[in-house]
Structure formats: C-alpha cells, structure tokens
Design goal:
It is a single chain. The protein is of the alpha/beta class and about 550 residues long. Helix content is about 55%, strand content about 10%. It contains 25 helices and ten strands. Helix 5 links the parallel strand 2 and strand 3. Helix 16 (about 325-340) packs antiparallel against helix 17 (about 350-360). The protein is globular, with a radius of gyration of 32 Å. It starts with a helix and ends with a helix.
C-alpha cells in the first residue's frame, strides 16, 4: 500500500495544515448544523478528498448517534469502530459514492446521479455524493445539477471538490458552503514526514526532509509519495540521495548561478547551467530554484529582516546578496526569469530558457547596490532639468559610489569609466547614446520575433531623443511614419520597450534624414532593401 494511503488521516485532528476547516466542520457536527452541499477548493494534495471522506464518516457514524454499537461517543469525530465507519473506510458503503467528474462530465451522468439521489439510503443515515474535480463537468451537466443542489432530498449531502474553483459557475458556488484548503507549510510537512519515517524505519537527514517538503510545493500527499520514492532508493537517506532520485538542483550550485548573474558574468552563469545539465539535473527545476533565491534576496532587500524560512547558511548568503544588488535590478532579473520559465513547455532544448534568462539578466546591466538600472540611466541622462532647459546644455550622471568588492575587476572598471562626464551632445551623451542604441537593437530583435512586418518598418528608424517618458524616433519615409504611428503597431512597440526597460514610454515619430554620412549616392543594395521593406509591409 502506498504511504499516502497507509497514513491517510482517519480523524479531523489528524488533518495537516487545515485547522480552519477541521475545526469548523467539527463544530457543525457537534451542533447538528450540517448543510446539504459543501465545496472544498484548493491545490492538489492538501486533503480535500480525505476531508470529504471524514465528513461522510462523521455524518453517518453510529458513535455520534449515541448508539450502543459504538465503543464511545466521540464528540464529532468518527469513531472508526462502528460498521458505518468500517464500510466507508474500506470503500464498501453503498450510500457513499465517489464520482470522478473528469471521466463523468456529461449531462447523462449527472441525470443518473440525480435519479439515484431520490431514493432513501440503503443502510446509512444519509447518502453522501463526493464529486471530485467538479470543475470538469460540462455546462449542461452543471445546469442539470443546479436544481437538485439547491433543494436536495433531506437524506442527501453533496461534497464537491476542485482544484480550480474559478471555473465553477457562480450559481453552483452560491448554493454550497465553501471551504478553501491552503498549501501546507514546509514545517508541517516535515513534522508529518518525520513521523512516517520513524514508523517505517527510515533514517533520513533533516535537510533531506526539507528538500522533499519543498519539492512537494505545499501538498502533503506529494511529499509522502516523494518520500516513498526516495526510500526505495536508500533506507538511510542523505541529501545526495534526494538530489539524485528527484533531480533536485544542488543548492550551492543554484547560489553560484545567481551570484554569477549578480556579478554580470554570463559566461560563468552559462558554465554552471551546462554543468547542471551534464549531471542530469532537471533544468526547469534549476530555473524555478533560481527564481526562488532571487525572490528571497528581493524580499530581504525590501524588508531588511529575514522572515523567510531557510537554513542559517542560506540566510547569510541572502543578506550578503541583498546588500550588493539594487531592488530595481532584482525586479528586472526576476522578470526575465519568470518570463522565460513558461518556455520550458514550448522548446525542445531544456537549456534554452535558462540560457536566455542568464544572458538577458547580465547583458550590460549595472550591478552595484547604488547603480541605476538601464531604464533609470536612460531616463536620468536624457531628462532635461531646469538648468538644461535654460542653457541648452546636456548633463550626465557620474557615479559617486565605489563599485562593490564582489564585482570582477573588469566589471568595476567599466562601471567607473562609464561614470565620467561627457560635456556636450545635442540629444544624448555618448555613453548614454551607445546604451540607447544597444537597447534599440534589443527592441528590433524582439519585435522581429513577434511581428516581422513591424520589424521591417523599424529597420530604417533611429531614436533621436528621450524626454521624460517619450521616445522620439527619426523615420526616413512618410509611409513608414504613418504605419509605425498606427495605434496597433505603436502599442506593440511600446509594450516591447516596457519589457526591456522596465517602465512605460510613449513613441512619437518625425521625418528625419538618419542615414549615416556616406560619399556618393545610395547603393543598389540599399535601394533594393527599401523597396523590399515597403513590399513586405504591403
């Protein structure tokens, strides 16, 4: 028998992490204030079906009936000794029906259920219908169930369970008493796993237990299944065993990966990613673990106190990282990693989403705690202040902060050199202009992937200036200007810029001769390319 079945709770008191549910239901049973329909909603493996069975037992328990058949009155809890409890536990009770809505989705299935509900219970006090994954029912099936759910026979109780309550019609939800099941905390899962391991004679390290609990993502059923899987590999379970069996990334390796990103070292980050891949580690798990580490650093940086559950060693690492990297950069890195996470289900190469995230997060990004982000640099350098408006002179930002000792010498030099003032440029300083040109090349690359027609229009454009939150584009042809200014194309372009720079900008266009200074007339290739651009749009 599987561990999650063997150690399934048989009392409300045994439910893990759902005290708000068990306490409310127990009081309702004690006071005989049960309703006719319940809705149990929450993530998988949190105890919805188990609680439904407990409720079915408690409703029909002869111990709660003050019957002589039970050993004692259990004050709301099922006695687990009477014939009713025994039949329900063994799955032999004719009056307790569990229905998988995923395989019984049609209206005919529901009509058959409603027809059977009219008849009195064969043996128990009440008929209990447990409909699992109820959100899978068809619209017609929901409509057929609606009337019976509103006014069921007095001897019937419906218990609906779902992982996706938002898919249920409001008319169904409003006719039930809803209980939301929460993800179980890591500490609660670890406590239960310790008891199971002790009962099963399994020796396991504390950190290995924590790894299994984290991998279960708040579901104690999943945690019990993972413990059983690892215990089949070794009865004396070490951290290394859990990593090998479950493909969990070594925590120190994930920290090294994140640190490489913070230090702007794409090469080192990619080396670590490929090392994980060569060792057979699940790369999607590495990606998610990196997101969790960056999240913890961001939370520490924002709150300055570690309410995050982690080991003492990891907390020290988080404190160190939080003192080095700015919150703005952490948010930008998280956006890159979160945006690419979904690609693991869309590409054949599992390394690609992580590689993209590493490169995007390290490509010419400032690193220090007090260094501005790309968006801030672009905005601050080009935003006119009062003195600039009067004199017509441009200003630049100089870095007053010394680069942190955690950075490589090469990176530190580039940061300090980038801070030297450049005295006069008509629109942008040289350094800022180079940076904007690089950002614009990213805009063109992403636009080409998503909208090749718009990319063709943008091929012959150039950012002329950035004023506050407005980017002025120079465009050579009126036709291109009209097309880019179209609301639909402009919205796509502004959204792409927001993804890259982390803030919103408005795009405006003006006709300008933006060709590089060349001697002689345009080449045949240039003329042909211009013609191709126009026909590509048409």
């Amino acid at each position: 028998m599987a561990l999650y079945q063997k150690y399934r709770p048989q009392l409300f008191a045994d439910l893990v992490g759902q005290d708000h549910v068990s306490r409310t239901l127990l009081e309702a049973i004690r006071q005989n204030r049960l309703t006719h329909a319940y809705l149990f909603a929450g993530p998988r493996g949190t105890g919805k079906t188990t609680t439904a069975r407990l409720l079915a037992k408690a409703i029909n328990c002869r111990g709660n009936d003050d019957s002589d058949e039970a050993a004692s009155v259990t004050n709301g809890e099922p006695c687990n000794q009477c014939s009713s409890c025994d039949e329900i536990v063994k799955g032999r009770a004719l009056d307790v029906l569990e229905i998988d809505a995923a395989s019984h989705t049609g209206v005919d299935d529901v009509r058959e259920l409603i027809e059977n509900a009219r008849f009195a219970p064969a043996k128990l006090r009440k008929k209990v219908y447990i409909i699992d994954e109820v959100h899978m029912l068809s619209k017609s099936a929901f409509n057929a169930l609606l009337k019976t759910l509103e006014e069921p026979p007095p001897h019937v109780v419906f218990i609906l369970a779902t992982t996706e309550a938002h898919k249920l019609p409001e008319t169904i939800i409003s006719r039930t008493q809803r209980y939301d099941f929460r993800r179980v905390s890591i500490s609660d899962i670890v406590t239960k796993l310790e008891k199971i391991a002790q009962s099963e004679g399994i020796t396991i390290e504390e950190e290995a237990l924590n790894m299994i609990a984290r991998a279960a993502e708040g579901g104690h059923r999943d945690a019990e299944g993972l413990l059983e899987q690892v215990s089949s590999y070794a009865r004396d379970i070490k951290v290394k065993d859990v990593q090998e069996v479950l493909g969990i990334a070594e925590q120190s390796g994930v920290l090294d990966l994140v640190w490489a990103i913070f230090n702007n070292s794409a090469e080192e980050g990619l080396k670590i990613a490929h090392r994980f891949f060569d060792n057979g580690t699940d790369i999607a798990t590495v990606h998610r673990n990196a997101i969790e580490v960056i999240r913890k650093v961001l939370l520490y940086s924002a709150t300055s106190h570690h309410f995050i559950a982690d080991t003492e060693e990891n907390i020290k690492w988080i404190e160190k990282a939080g003192s080095v990297v700015s919150q703005e950069r952490l948010v930008a890195i998280l956006r890159h990693f979160l945006g690419n996470l979904k690609l693991h289900n869309e590409v054949s190469n599992p390394l690609l989403p992580l590689e993209i995230s590493i490169i995007e997060s390290t490509h010419q990004q400032p690193v220090g705690k007090h260094s501005p982000t790309v968006a801030q640099t672009a905005s601050a350098v080009t935003k006119p202040d009062s003195s600039r408006e009067k004199t017509g002179k441009s200003t630049t930002i100089t870095s007053k902060e010394t680069p942190t000792t955690y950075l490589s010498e090469k990176t530190s030099k580039s940061v300090s050199q980038g801070g030297e003032a450049n005295k006069s440029e008509p629109f942008l300083t040289k350094d800022a202009g180079d940076q904007i040109s690089h950002i614009w090349s990213q805009v063109l690359a992403i636009t080409k992937q998503n909208n090749s027609t718009l990319a063709a229009l943008l091929r012959d454009t150039k950012p002329l200036s950035i004023n506050n939150n407005e980017i002025l584009l120079g465009v050579r042809f009126q036709f291109h200007k009209d097309k880019i200014s179209d609301s639909k194309n402009r919205a796509v372009l502004e959204n792409t810029i927001k993804q890259i720079m982390g803030k919103e900008f408005t795009i405006t266009c003006e006709l300008a001769d933006i060709r590089a200074a060349k001697e002689g007339s345009a080449s045949d290739d240039e003329l042909q390319q211009a013609v191709n651009d126009v026909f590509e749009v048409l």
